[in-house]
Amino acid sequence: MFLKEGGNILKDTTSQSGKEHKPRLIQHANGPSLEEINGTVEVPKGKGFWKILFAYSGPGALVAVGYMDPGNWSTSITGGQNFQYLLMSVILMSSLIAMLLQYMAAKLGIVSQMDLAQAIRARTSKKLGIILWILTELAIMATDIAEVIGASIALYLLFNIPLVVAVFITVFDVLLLLLLTKVGFRKIEAIVVCLIFVILFVFVYQVALSDPNWGDVLKGLVPTGETFSSTHSIGGQTPLTGALGIIGATVMPHNLYLHSAVSQTRKINRTDEDEIANAVRFSTWDSNIQLTLAFFVNSLLLIMGVAVFKTGAVKDPSFFGLYEALSNPDTLSNGILITVAKSGLLSTLFAVALLASGQNSTITGTLTGQVIMEGFIHMRMPIWLRRLITRLISVIPVLICVIITSRQGTIREHTALNTLMNNSQVFLAFALPFSMVPLLMMTNSEVEMGSRFKNSIVIRILGWGSVIGLTYLNLIGLPGQIEGFFGEKVTSSQLVLADSIAYVIIVAVLLLLAWTIIELYKGNKKYNQLINER
């Protein structure tokens, strides 16, 4: 049994009867975050900057995966097709906000020795903890749906495996996880980094062949009044909806939980403030470097939409449509691309990158699921069982979609899968405030972080600005996302219904957020009083 109070963890290895319990499939958990790997990675002392940075490198890659998963692809490419380089600034702003949030998440884990889920649960009631757990699980399953769709389509495109069979094959990635649990956490980090570089190489190669106008690319990094405009529409999309799509697909709640856990894998002296500060510093370097790579991947995706394809050539932004467009000379922008495309290399590389992205997200999604389950409801199960359950649940809507539409023609099937993937992301808008706001409150607090590690005034201002801005953009984009559930041709009655549902959800989110903030404030105040009494 583990007892946690303000981040101090005490272990009691015996039960009240004095007898040891036999291991069970599902166990009570109230100990260190990801206990099997917590504090297991040695870091050198007194070495040079680069050697120490290498030792801390890895957790940032696990986090960066969430910023370049299959859910990002169509939004970035479609944004480039419709608005050229206008939305480059949105990708840049999203990446900078991500760096800020992930810095705070890593700092919370290292300083408090609790991940975000544990920190929230330690300051809130059991009832609220269960609600937040369910909400976060839904967000993870939403991203899992995108991974199932991406991986099954990649298998179909690469090996011509029927989609129904390919969907079932994705369930067996649990075997990959079983293998990875045997090789050690450091090797898992290395595998993830390798897969990231596979994705990066594919898009660098394709964009290099397209020879984009780099001057226009750089101009696109500066936001203008038109960036969030809702006045003109191209292909049914406005710059605002395109920006919301990119933001929604980029900043994901589960990354904050994951980073606050995996940042604790390094073995440091928890009683030495200087060593803790060093861990925060190098974890921040690691995170920022990896998120910079994610920024380049997302930027390359948008540049692909502008430079690889002819303007307006991609009519189908689904993975199927992009694969076909990369092998169709009529859609490509120059002779070099056309020559390479005829060999099938461009489309094959795209499918390989899609498969690599799906597998990366599988690894990180499973770790995050374990973090929130143990943190919010104090329950632990084997990682393979956890993955099997969540993947089987995520497979159900994908299978239903494939089975229903397979008889209605290939185009209908492809469109339905793309719509399902986009609509599944709506849960991210619900869950994001409930990870960002507590994270900011915790890291702003001297009670949690101490005077040395609490957020500076600059970080507070930037943090609250980012949290309020992202929450606002996610919520105002919700009516449009709900309308997407009704298909392309929405009737006036469906429009009214969609907006009504969206406004009810917005009110519910704001009320739940207020409840969370009040409980966190009271819990923090109570713990502060407890410390003062001692």
TrEMBL record:
Main location group: membrane
The protein's location, in the record's own words, is: Membrane
> One Gene Ontology cellular component annotation?
plasma membrane
Bilayer disposition of the protein: Multi-pass membrane protein
What's the superkingdom here? Bacteria
Q: Does the keyword Membrane apply?
A: yes
Checking InterPro entries in the record gives: NRAMP_fam
Q: Which biological processes are named by the entry's GO terms?
A: iron ion transmembrane transport
Q: Which NCBIfam families match?
A: nramp (TIGR01197), Nramp_1 (NF037982), PRK00701.1 (NF001923)
Designated name of the protein: Manganese transporter
Source organism of this protein record? Enterococcus devriesei
